[in-house]
Structure formats: structure tokens, C-alpha cells
Design a protein that fits this description.
With 113 residues, the chain is an alpha+beta fold. The chain has one domain: Ribosome maturation protein SBDS, N-terminal domain (Hypothetical 12.0 Kda Protein In Nam8-gar1 Intergenic Region, Chain: A). The radius of gyration is 16 Å and the shape is globular.
């Protein structure tokens, strides 16, 4: 099973992430950006980690954050720029459980269902 890749873009004020289907699709798009984004992107959303970096809780970037960083609120344009200029963080965890708090009162190794 191919897992999505995080494409990380280091912004001036915030860091941004989009998800692509696989490395091959990413490479093809970077060689020929006329390929439809729908063939490359997993989710048509731009995410940000307000704490910085690629790890941690990702939240959907606001239109204001996109406008401030990229000069546009157009999600397609922003995604295209991130895919073309961002770095592939395929080794980064998409579901990072080791830093999530489960139940602090029961200690760091407690996981409850």
C-alpha cells in the first residue's frame, strides 16, 4: 500500500503542508506542471502547524494565512506552489501518536480506548 507523502513548505510566518498520493506522481508533476493537480494531490486542502515544522497537529490553513504567505486565497494556486517548491517529508508521520496526550493522569504510557 502506498501511503501519502507530506510536502512541506517553510513559510515566513507559518509552515504549510499538502499531501500527495505518491512520489512518482510528485516527480511527474514537477517535470510537467500541466498535469492536473487532481492526479497528484490526496486532499485539496492546505494544512499548517502553528507550532512550526512538519510534525505535530496539522490544522487547515485559513484564507488569511494563505493570502499573507502566498499573496492569494486561491487554494489551487497555493497547492501548486507548495508541490513545486516544497520538500517531500515522506518519513514524517501522518498520524503522530507518540506526542499525543491520551490520559495525562494515568502516566505517559497509558492509552485508553
Amino acid at each position: 500500500m502506498v501511503s501519502p507523502h507530506k510536502i512541506f513548505y517553510k513559510g515566513e510566518e507559518n509552515d504549510f503542508v499538502v499531501f500527495v498520493e505518491d512520489r512518482e506522481a510528485l516527480d511527474k508533476f514537477r517535470e510537467d506542471s500541466s498535469i492536473p493537480l487532481v492526479d497528484v494531490i490526496s486532499v485539496f486542502q492546505v494544512f499548517t502547524n502553528r507550532q512550526g515544522g512538519v510534525e505535530g497537529q496539522l490544522l487547515q490553513a485559513s484564507k488569511t494565512e494563505l493570502e499573507n504567505e502566498f499573496g492569494t486565497k486561491n487554494t489551487d494556486e497555493v497547492i501548486k506552489k507548495i508541490v513545486l517548491e516544497g520538500s517531500d517529508k515522506s518519513n514524517a508521520s501522518i498520524n503522530n501518536r507518540k506526542f499525543n496526550s491520551h490520559n495525562d493522569s494515568m502516566g505517559p504510557d497509558a492509552i485508553t480506548n
